[in-house]
Amino acid sequence: ADLAGFIRGLPKAELHLHIEGSLEPEQMFEFARRNRVDLSYKSVEEIRAAYEFSRLQDFLDIYYAGAQVLLTEADFRDLALAYFRRAHADGVVHAEIFFDPQTHTDRGVPFATVADGLLAGMAAAERDFGMTSKLILCFLRHLDEDAAFATLKDAEPYLDRIEAVGLDSSEVGHPPSKFARVFAAAAAQGLKRVAHAGEEGPPAYVHEALDLLQVDRIDHGNRALEDPALVERLVASNMTLTVCPLSNHKLCVTPDLRAHPLKRMLALGLRATVNSDDPAYFGGYVGANYTALIEPIGLTRDDVLTLARNSFTGSFLPQDAIDKHL
Ligand code: ES4
Ligand code: ZN
After folding, report:
1. Which of 20, 57, 59 to mutate to test the pocket of ligand 1 (most atoms within 8 A of CB)?
2. How do residues 262-305 score in pLDDT, each as one tens digit?
């Protein structure tokens, strides 16, 4: 009867979460205060009022500005732990979180400060909430290939604690082909690969992510539906799509949630999952991303079971851990 309650109680994994996108306005003020960073906003209300986006770039400009308050290892630990607390409250038992090291190293925050802080938050979440997690290093695609290689080099001491590399930021004009060599280098170092593709970019970018980056998952993938041959390929290869409903709504990828493609994806046999992307900016954590679709697309209890199941089968957990969650 109460589908929202059922969703909350069902164990789920989150596979598409930018940890910098979990920075709530209240925390932004707190970190700015304790680090003596000047915020151009005067109040939490003023920050929230600025969260009106008509495309991805509108959001990215504000998201990178917000991240400037993050300076110390404690900031990154507190940020991560606060995310895990909220995800835990939503029934998330495993999370594979993205971080954008270049956003921090480019303003003088060492890679180690970021990584050590996030890893401390992950350890605390395991201890306090029994949650497991993995770290995914994302390259910013609006920056060049050399910068991505430098970031992979920065990560070398941490490669045993990083599961995968990803690709995020401004999609259109920055195709996966730009990062084919750095993804090959990451693969040679034993890292898995994911990439944002088909959020705003065309189906050709999804093909490129598969062919040139050899990805294990596609982040978003909404526009793959425009290409029936691509859909067939994604179905045949059991490719996981990490779909983010509230993000799609807020960034006007799907301005009207009644037109959201999730149900169609499931009907086509695609391994779709539900995720929060940047929950502090888009209006909710995983639970809210499921419940937002109940009325607009008639999400059912069976759909929810399939989506939660997909979140584990699409994860980078070892098979025995996946089996325990199914
Ligand atoms: C992102 Cl929604 C989205 N798309 C691309 N890059 C991102 N970085 C953080 N959120
Ligand atoms: Zn994303």
Report:
1. 59
2. 999 999 999 999 999 999 999 999 999 999 999 999 999 999 99
pLDDT value at residue 69 = 98
Read off the tokens for 278.
Answer: 């940047």
* Mean pLDDT for all residues in the chain: 98
**How confident is the model over 183-214, as pLDDT tens digits?**
999 999 999 999 999 999 999 999 999 999 99
| Cα–ligand 1 centroid distance for 130 (angstroms) | 28
Nearest ligand 1 atom to the CA of 168 is 6
The alpha carbon of 195 is separated from its chain's Cα centroid by a whole number of angstroms, namely 10
Length of the chain: 326
pTM of the predicted model, to two decimals? 0.98
| Virtual torsion, Cα 269, 270, 273, 277, nearest 10 deg | -150
Q: How many helices (H) and strands (E) does the chain have?
A: 18, 8
- 199 is annotated as an active-site residue: yes
Give the span between the Cα atoms of 176 and 173, in whole angstroms. 10
3-state secondary structure of 94: strand
Token pair, residue 234, equals 């994604």
| Domains (range + CATH), the chain | 3-315 (3.20.20.140)
CB 20 within 8 A of CB 99: yes
Q: Which residues surround ligand 2, an ion (CB under 5 A)?
A: 277
- For residue 92, the 8-state DSSP code is E
- Report CA(278)–ligand 2 centroid distance (Å): 7
